Amino acid sequence: MSRAIPAAIATLATGLLLAAAAVVAQAQSVEAPRAGALTGVLKRIKEAGVVRIGYREGAVPFAFAGADGPPHGYSIDICDAIVEDISEAVGAVALRVEYRRVTPADRVEQVADGRIDLECGATTGTAGRRERVAFSPLIFVAGTRLLVKRGSGIRSEGNLPGRRVAVARGRRNEAAMRIFASKPGRPFDLQVADDFAQALAMLASGGVDAVAADDVLIAAS
């Protein structure tokens, strides 16, 4: 059995829906632009009739692979509503949704280089990321917490020195834990997993003593 414990190991992370700037800015307009005025992402979407949505397979409850094919989740529902707005913005054109898998390590790059139009997951809007992509309005707020096995003896961040802690690669939790581990007198072994599912597997197998992740992801695990 595992349990989540409070841990003041990071400031609150602002979770946002990652989106291509032209899509959010234009699709939320009160009036749809004239067909000839469409540029950038909206122009491509209208011409192709396709919206490419990036999703993570195991980011419950935000986005996760469905047994029947298409992904499901809170962020997916929001993206579905955005697609309806995009359809109106490009002239009430029927649009097909194409889902593409992303990871915490490549989600920003896939939006920045145009492989996807929207990333529907749980992505923190940092200053560095905002230099490359745009974000929707806030959709949730989360903080970094720890998941440990019952009986581990870990009750707070003060019990971490000398322990092994796993984080998912590319998430803000990794940066927060690196800062925390560098503090004098508080060293611990930080191990980076490819994704949250792998971090959970490392905890289950005894490879690490704790997993650091967003509280909402831990609650849904």
Strand percentage, roughly? Answer: 25-35%
Helix tally?
8
The averaged pLDDT comes out at 81
Q: Structural class given helices, strands, pairing?
A: alpha/beta
Largest sheet: 5 strands, mixed
- If you compute it from the alpha carbons, what radius of gyration comes out, rounded to the nearest whole angstrom? 19 Å
Give the overall shape: elongated
Poorly predicted residue ranges: 4-33
Sheet with the most strands: spatial strand order:
1-10-13-11-12
The end-to-end distance, rounded to whole angstroms, is 12 Å
Number of strands: 13
- Portion of residues within helices: 25-40%
- Summarize the helix and strand pattern as letters: EEHHEEEEHEHEHEEEHEHEH
Record keyword descriptors for this entry:
221 residues, five-stranded mixed β-sheet, alpha/beta, single chain, elongated, 13 strands
What does this structure look like?
It is elongated, with a radius of gyration of 19 Å. The model is unreliable at 4-33 (pLDDT under 50). It contains eight helices and 13 strands. Helix 1 (21-27) crosses helix 3 (74-89). The chain has helices at 21-27, 40-48, 74-89, 107-112, 127-130, 172-181, 196-205, 215-220; strands at 2-5, 13-19, 50-55, 58-59, 63-66, 69-72, 96-101, 118-124, 134-142, 144-149, 164-168, 189-193, 210-214. 31% of the residues lie in helices and 32% in strands. The strands form three sheets. A five-stranded mixed beta sheet has the order 1-10-13-11-12, with helices on both faces. It has a five-stranded mixed beta sheet with strand order 7-3-8-2-9. A three-stranded antiparallel beta sheet has the order 4-5-6. The termini are close together.
